[in-house]
Structures are given as C-alpha cells and as structure tokens.
Amino acid sequence: MSLNLVVVTPNGRVLAESGVAKVIVRRFEERFSRGGQVVFLPMHGSETVHLGDGPLVYVTDRGDEVRVELGGGFAEIEQGVVTVLTPSAKVVSRVGA
C-alpha cells in the first residue's frame, strides 16, 4: 500500500508522485520556534496540518529520498492522498536507493 503526493502552488502543480512510502513535513506551531514533524504513512487517518517554512521529505517505494523546500502552507491527507498547498515549492534533492 502506498501514498500519492501532490504539491500545488499558486502557479500550478509542482509535483505529483505515486508509490510514496512516507511523507515528512514540518508542522507550524506558534508555541515552538521550530515546530514539530508529522509523518504521513499509508493507512494514516484524515488530518490537515499548518506547515512552517522548511523541508518536505518523502521516500518512494523504491527507496528514493526526495527533499522539497516549502514556503509554508497546508498539508492534508485523505484516503491515501497527501495534498500540499503552498506559496512556493522547489525540489532540491533526489537521492536514489
């Protein structure tokens, strides 16, 4: 079982990937300067989180690790689809397994 990941900015879709094993994002929390991390895995319940500036890291089913720099926004997981709405996003690295 895998996740689907979609990252969207005001300029359109930046990323769409299926076969994702996990997605890690930094949650924005006013009480903590750095916030905390949230890990989305297959079978994760529905949730929406406010994102801080920083990396989104995901690992594919093949073991590739991809890092995307986000400019804040929101992430939602619903029925195995992680959707990220952000003002800016840039894929900065992709490391194969």
The total of helices stands at: 0
Secondary-structure content class:
mainly beta
User: How much is the average pLDDT?
Assistant: 92
**What is the tally of beta strands?**
7
CATH architecture: Sandwich
What is the level 1 CATH name?
Answer: Mainly Beta
Residue share in β-strands = over 45%
The gross shape turns out to be globular
Instruction: Supply the number of structural domains.
Output: 1
Would you list the SSEs in sequence order as H and E? EEEEEEE
Largest sheet: 5 strands, mixed, barrel
Uncertain spans: none
Describe the protein's architecture and organization.
The structure is a single chain. The chain is mainly beta and 97 residues long. It has a single domain, classed as F0F1 ATP synthase delta/epsilon subunit, N-terminal (ATP Synthase, domain 1, Sandwich). The chain has strands spanning 3-9, 12-27, 36-40, 47-60, 65-78, 81-85, 89-95. β1 and β2 form a beta hairpin. It is globular. The mean pLDDT is 92.
Secondary structure elements and pairings:
Layout: E1 3-9, E2 12-27, E3 36-40, E4 47-60, E5 65-78, E6 81-85, E7 89-95
Parallel strand pairs: 1-6
Antiparallel strand pairs: 1-2, 2-3, 2-4, 4-5, 5-6, 5-7
